[in-house]
Amino acid sequence: MSQEDKSRIEELKKSLYSRASPDVRTRRKLRFSSTSQPLNTSFGGIENDEHVDPILNTQKEIVSISLLTKILIGSGIFCVIAVAIGAYLFFNGANLISGDNIDITISGPVSIPGGEPVSFDVQATNKNNVPLQLVDMSVDFPAGTTDPSNPTQELKNYHQLIGDLSSGESAHKKVDAIIFGEENMQKQVVVTLTYQVKGSSSLFTKQKSYDVLINSSPITVSVDSFKEVTSGQEFDMTVNLKSNSQQTLKNVILKGSYPIGYTFVSSNFQPLSDKATWKIGDIPPGGQQSVIVHGKIQGSDSDSRAFHFTVGAQSSSDPKIIGTEYTVAEQDITIKKPFVSLAIAIDSDDALTDHVGQFNQPERIEVNWTNNLPVSISNMQIIVKLSGSAYDKTAVEPDAGYFRSPTDEIIWNQQTNPELATVQAGDSGKVTFTVIPKDKSSFSAPITNPIVVVDAGVLADRLQESGVSGSLSSVATRSTRISSNSSLTGRLVRSIGPFTNTGSVPPRAEQATTYTLMWTINNTSNVLNNAQVTATLPPYIKWTGTISPSDAPITYDQNSGLVTWTPGNVGTYSSGSSSRKEVAFQISFTPSVNQIDQSPTLLNQATLSAEDSFTGVSIQNIQDYITTRFSTDPTYKEGQATVVK
């Protein structure tokens, strides 16, 4: 190999291992051509190749500049931008607004007595290098918070406009409240700052919460009652309220929640309409009040029932509900099956609710008994005691029992009923009697909401069982509520009444005669709710539109001829008194010739409908047709009702 060839090989090696050498595959790709080039197989012929090397070298330079230059230029631009951004953030980043640079500090007690005034000091500090604009502070209080300046007013939110807050500036606000709650209850106060920054219309917020523990309730509630009762047994629950507050608790309300099967009977405080809410009023510091709730409960053996009683302050919007809750108490009562079950049926009505009856209508009462013990009992005695404002001892028929009128008791024992001497396990039977409710009211002593009460009890001895004997007892109660006696009367008059009537009497064919129709509602013992009277006028009767009183709630539908009077509620014992409901309206009658010698109907049958407020039943009274015979008028004479020519 000549020296020149070696020199060429060395140059080729340098080209292959040089960093600036282009990729051969890339070069071949760039030189790809459909025209074949002669391949030089001899290194010695390279210097005579005038086409390949110049072109290859030129392409190599172009590729190297195109690819590497772009990478270098791009990297340089990225570095410049990154350095510029970093420098900007380093020298100017302090002007950025961050909620982390706004500090909210809440100072106050971590444990407070419920119902006592408490103060919180709220401090807001702007640690940003730019001011905050239109800073607004809002404090949200937990449920059961009131305003110290008006303890009856619920306080849900405190709002204060701080205004602009410069860099490094702080704002202090003192917030007062009275927080109520149960003992050991955790409450949370939340402070929210709302602000704007210069050059932006957006609102930004920063929030912080503060926990407070109620270490004592402003009032304690306890319930005293039996832990176990028998089904149907009446019993008392005493709800005791005691103030722990140093402030007078205003407008205190006690609200009960009764379980299924419980029936409220009475209480020492007058309850509101739901019979489960009592307005106690103000309780001074250390003051006490007790509400005794009397009722009965029905259920199966071993059933458990829970009573809930909530105490709080009266709502400012509704005086019948609790606006601010103070505390809650619960009483669990277990129902035990009585040794002898007693069930009272009145006129075959064996429901657990009160029966509804009528004055002077006899009621057949059955007292059914069943021995629930697995052993026999002896000397069983059933005693029924009668009472109530509609009870009349002269209207009692005791059947087989003995009626002891001085004590108003009917007694059945083994002397009146030999089968009661020994009653085997599972045995059952019944005793019966009749009572007639009576209206015993007088003008000077009216009786409202009349009732007949039947209290049944049983006494017996348990036969020897494991060497032990003893007396047993059980009770049951049932009442009959007596519906009010109400009536609707209708009168046709001409010479009396609030209107002047015209036309001939007797009425003359094809000539108009006017009459006055009067409706009167009389009522006795119970208030009637939503009373309404309806009737229709025949097509030949004209409604004149004249009524008395002039503002009476009475309407007339010309298409149907329906007259509707809605007097609303009717009070008790309204007959003959100023409280009775009465209305008058005038009609005009022009007889047709085919009605000659007749006494046509002027008003069809009228119906009074209402609801008895005491018994809850619907009341209906019917007033018969009213004809031209106006015999209720003092000037009426026979023959004046017949239409003449």
> End-to-end distance, in Å?
165 Å
Which value, in Å, is the CA radius of gyration?
A: 50 Å
List low-confidence stretches.
24-37, 39-60, 464-471
Number of separate strands: 41
In oligomeric terms, what are we looking at?
single chain
Q: Give average pLDDT, whole number.
A: 85
The chain-level structural class is mainly beta
Question: What does it look like?
Answer:
This protein is mainly beta and 645 residues long. The chain contains three helices and 41 strands. The strands form nine sheets. Strands 21, 23, 25, 26, 27, 29 and 30 form a seven-stranded mixed β-sheet that branches. Strands 1-3-8-5-6 form a five-stranded antiparallel β-sheet, with no helix packed on it. A five-stranded mixed β-sheet has the order 2-10-9-4-7, with no helix packed on it. Strand 35 (554-557) and strand 36 (562-570) form a beta hairpin. The protein is extended and about 160 Å long. It starts with a helix and ends in an 18-residue tail after the last strand. Mean pLDDT is 85; it is low at 24-37, 39-60 and 464-471.
